[in-house]
Specification:
alpha/beta; 6-stranded parallel beta sheet; 43% helix
Length: 176
């Protein structure tokens, strides 16, 4: 017997309609919520999480747009997503960088308890945090099939979304 996991990456207000929001991100919120609610397996959420010192970090110097500062409205999951997370009682990982090593290690522990059948990712942003987490899962669990639902992800731009999908395909992440 194995268990499947869905990772809902950074579906936060700042990435949907806040500081770094895009029309493409806004367009996937309801679909991600419905998909997570109906998923036959374990659903896990992540939140990009920064402190007040964000602009003094390496990321902040490269992307000088304060976002997802812990405790702000922009840091919170989008309302439809937060509702699903609460309904499911799902774990939420706060991650200080693009990929969550903590989440990857947690998945390794779950796999030791009960083999993981697959890991699927949806969310934001395809070209930064989705690709980072997909590749971490591949590194930590190389024999577990990893999937990305392309229509339930959005990138910083449509072009960077497509480039990230191509990168993931080349790293043996199946894009659906």
């Amino acid at each position: 017997m194995s268990k499947d996991y869905l990772l809902v990456i950074d579906m936060q207000n700042d990435f949907v309609d806040g500081a770094l929001g895009t029309p493409e991100a806004q367009a996937i919120v309801e679909g991600v919520a419905a998909y997570a609610r109906a998923f036959d397996g374990a659903v896990v959420f992540t939140r990009d999480t920064h402190g007040e010192d964000y602009l003094r970090t390496q990321e902040g110097r490269n992307l000088p747009v304060p976002h997802c500062v812990r405790g702000t409205a922009g840091w919170e999951l989008a309302p439809a997503i937060a509702e699903v997370a609460a309904e499911l009682g799902a774990p939420v990982f706060d991650k200080p960088s693009f990929g969550s090593v903590e989440l990857a290690r947690w998945l390794v522990e779950r796999d030791a308890e009960e083999p993981i059948g697959s890991v699927e990712l949806v969310g934001l942003c395809t070209d930064i945090c989705v690709v980072s987490n997909a590749l971490l899962v591949k590194a930590f669990l190389p024999e577990v099939p990893v999937f990305v639902a392309a229509s339930l992800c959005a990138g910083v731009t449509p072009a960077s979304h497509e480039a990230a999908l191509a990168t993931m395909k080349s790293c043996q992440v199946e894009v659906r």
